[in-house]
Specification:
Layout: H1 19-38, H2 50-61
Keywords: Chromophore
Pfam family, one: DNA_photolyase
Domain Photolyase/cryptochrome alpha/beta: 1-79
């Protein structure tokens, strides 16, 4: 979880993650973890800036051949 998602939006300062969205995200992650556990896997959840957390995980794991990620779209819509 990136703490920057709890800050205001770029344009208007509205919260990016309000209480309802946060609850949905937490429930979704919990459900995903439980589903993976039933299949013999697990889910690593961390809080921090992804650029720091991913680097630390790679260092901790030692042998990582690939990392996949997505970037948040920061486009301003013009009507």
């Amino acid at each position: 979880f990136d703490p920057r998602h709890h800050l205001g939006t770029h344009c208007f300062g509205f919260p990016k993650t309000g209480p309802h969205r946060l609850r949905f995200l937490l429930e979704s992650v919990k459900d995903l973890r439980e589903t993976l556990k039933k299949k013999g896997s697990t889910l690593v959840v961390r809080k921090g800036k992804p650029e720091d957390v991913v680097r630390d995980l790679i260092t901790q794991l030692g042998s990582v051949s690939a990392v996949a990620f997505h970037e948040e779209v920061r486009e301003i819509l013009k009507w």
